[in-house]
Amino acid sequence: MIEFRAVSKRYGDGTVAVDNLDLVVEAGTITVLVGPSGCGKTTCLRMVNRMVEPTSGTVLLDGRDVRESDPARLRRRIGYVIQHAGLFPHRTVLDNIATVPLLSGWTRRSARRRAGELLELVGLPQELGRRYPAQLSGGQQQRVGVARALAADPPVLLMDEPFSAVDPVVREGLQDELLRLQGELDKTILFVTHDIDEAVRIGERVAVFRQGGRLAQYAPPDELLAHPADDFVASFVGRDRGYRRLSFVEGSALEPCSVPIVRAGEGAEVSATDEGWVLVLDEQDNPRGWLAPRSGGGARSAAGTTPVPPGSLYTRGAPLRAALDAALSSPSGLGVVVDDDGRYLGVVTARQVLDVLERHRLGVEAG
Questions:
Q1: Of 228, 329, 331, 367, which residue is the least packed, with the fewest Cβ within 10 Å?
Q2: Single pTM value for the model
Q3: SS (HEC) of 82-125
Q4: pLDDT at 190 over 70
Q5: Contacts for 174 with CB less than 8 Å, ≥ 6 apart
């Protein structure tokens, strides 16, 4: 557990980075610090491992004032991941990961064995261990940074905008990887970002800071989106916070409907009576696209026809936000529902999603 008790940080020029912060980060959880640039998020993070010393107040780690610990020893017990990974360019990937275990007295053989295990844990092939950071993609470097932070199995992990320097697709993959790792390792994670979407996606609790280093609100993501503490928080989380809340409503109540289908590459025609959109499936029942309605009717075939991309797919049981996105992104207005293996189950409409959401809202109010 990490505790900030009346913590402030003021610099000699009068700048207040953090102002009287009281905050408790529960053990085994992901807590995200979010806010505009210059609001003290990174300063808070660095006070935990004594890279920055508070002007007043106390920072405690598992009930002990961090100032009672030697800074070097303290940092070896705390994983630290930064933007751009911060890897040593002259060391191989394996040697980068093995850095902290070696400093902690491990033998070179055991440290490198641990590094190899962590490569697999963060989803990287073993052969990358012989490469240097410059030979990796940005996403791979960030995974190595996470592996290095985990090398000595620290109970606490500090992450300072670790995914902000990669493209959105890689970033989402890294977020998924972090959540997967947390499910296995159960670390106490303090994560800094300026992106509210990232904050509500990965955080179990989110702390919103305003300029001047003051805490504006500290709450679970759903509560933050549903009940912003003031106009500043409401503005920061965005006008589309209602849409974001769909991420916290699971979609098991959605019942997929059927639509006409045809197999990709087959000469079988779709009945002329099926005047609407027709879904194209492959041999494994994976959706491949839509056949658009034909003007004036008439039969259609998937053979020799390029289907229209289906839009995003909705995995049954996932949150309603994904279901609504599938319906809205589909050219037919029908969100394609699939199982965990990507096989077609049916379709849903935006109207169905909103009906389930309304029933959920009434149930919450009644409860």
A1: 367
A2: 0.79
A3: ECCCCCCCCCCHHHHHCHHHHHCCCCHHHHHHHHHHHHHHCCCC
A4: yes
A5: 139, 142, 143, 162, 163, 166
Question: How far apart are alpha carbons 331 and 115 in whole angstroms?
Answer: 47
d(CA 150, CA 82): 13
d(CA 257, CA 152): 51
Instruction: Give the separation between CA 236 and CA 180, rounded to whole angstroms.
Output: 28
**Coil, helix or strand at residue 44:** helix
Q: Residue 304: what pLDDT?
A: 53
CA angle, 218 as apex, 213 and 223 as ends, to 5°?
A: 140
Which residues face 269 on adjacent strands? 301
Query: Residue 341 and residue 286: Cα distance in Å, rounded?
Result: 9
Q: Which amino acid is at 113?
A: R
Is 305's pLDDT higher than 80? Answer: no
CA–CA separation, 163 and 146 (whole Å): 11
CA angle 122, 159, 117 (to 5 degrees): 20
The model's pLDDT over 315-336, given as tens digits with 9 standing for 90+, comes to 998 889 899 999 999 999 999 9
Contact present, 348 and 334 (Cβ < 8 Å): yes
Query: At residue 281, what are phi and psi to the nearest 5 degrees?
Result: -115, 150
Rounded Cα–Cα distance for residues 243 and 265 (Å)? 38
Parallel, antiparallel or unpaired: strands 278-281 and 269-270: unpaired
User: Considering only CA atoms, which of 148, 160, 139 is closest in space to residue 92?
Assistant: 148
18 SS3 class: strand
* Three-class DSSP category at 357: helix
**Amino acid found at 354:** L
Strands 56-61 and 205-210, how do they pair? unpaired
The helix or strand, by DSSP H or E, that contains position 312, with its residue range, turns out to be none
Residue 182's closest CA among 327, 30, 76? 30
Place of tokens 């309304």: 358
Cβ neighbours of residue 124 closer than 8 Å, sequence gap 6 or more? 93, 140, 143, 144, 147
